[in-house]
Amino acid sequence: MKSVLFSRFFILLPWILIVIIMLDVDTRRPAPPLTPRPYLSPYAGGRGAARLPLRRGGPGRGREQRNESRPPPPPPPEPPLPTIYAITPTYSRPVQKAELTRLANTFRQVAQLHWILVEDAAARSELVSRFLARAGLPSTHLHVPTPRRYKRPGLPRATEQRNAGLAWLRQRHGHQRAQPGVLFFADDDNTYSLELFQEMRTTRKVSVWPVGLVGGRRYERPLVENGKVVGWYTGWRADRPFAIDMAGFAVSLQVILSNPKAVFKRRGSQPGMQESDFLKQITTVEELEPKASNCTKVLVWHTRTEKVNLANEPKYHLDAVTIEV
Ligand code: UDP
Ligand code: MN
């Protein structure tokens, strides 16, 4: 009788254990969220997916805390995400709204981005004002006209507009200790990957990366050795102190504020030297921070939009409606 009882007990034991384990596992599973989680882009550079691996504590930590009677201490506050300030010069032309639409669609996916749109015009246009009001982005709308004498082929473009953006930044942050920020010159016709913003957000002083489709080559890039920029891969004027396109660098807000006189120059600036003239005022080649896997990835393209064919556009308005294009 005793042995029968024992054998039954040992037959049942594994089953009892399995049931206990399953109950235990089930209660440990976190409850599903009541509302669907917002989509967090891994490129948003923000609070979501990209930061998860940085959480402190190993896998064993959760179990430790569950047994404590006091609630776990709140996690330390995350440092504020540096704001990316994108300065975009723009001018009226048939493709302007299309360019701005592409740009806004990109920027909208980037966390904590402030768009400084500077019109090359004597006044803010209705088209751009309306566009920005509906863009769903934190933005500042500035304008400054390029003097007529500088509107010639071969002369640098958008000098006054970029300087207006710089002046706004300095004025806005001049009287207080600067919040962390990164400045980037984003022409309205280029193509920007979302990864680019993740890279530039960690800029400490001045960061650099390759640019595709520029300088008569498939790409230009800073040459990097042991984490430092030692030269430039370029097919055009390799003697430039910083042989880099406007789309190939970012500057921390702190550097912009501590070099209040650094601006884009008209006088004495040769074509293609805008970037070098500006960067010379705020940094040195040795100081540059290479991004995009030591400058081996193209994350931005110097695309240029083809001039549109308006050969069949009527001289006088013929349509029954007036449409903004
Ligand atoms: N731009 C401007 N006024 C002009 C020509 C250009 O504000 O008269 C702006 C343009 O919208 C762009 C930037 O300046 O954001 C650079 O111009 P563009 O793309 O024509 O130059 P590139 O592609 O040759 O560097
Ligand atoms: Mn361009």
UniProtKB/TrEMBL annotation:
Stretches the record annotates as Disordered: 34-83
A Pfam family recorded for this sequence: Glyco_transf_43
Record bears the keyword Translocase: no
Main location: Golgi
Signal peptide segment: none
CDD domains: GlcAT-I (cd00218)
Ranges of Low complexity composition bias in the record: 37-56
Residues that, per the record, bind UDP-alpha-D-glucuronate: 89-91, 120, 157, 162, 187-189, 302-304
Stated name of the protein: Galactosylgalactosylxylosylprotein 3-beta-glucuronosyltransferase
Organism per entry: Balaenoptera musculus (Blue whale)
Origin organism lineage: Eukaryota, Metazoa, Chordata, Craniata, Vertebrata
Gene responsible for this protein: B3GAT2
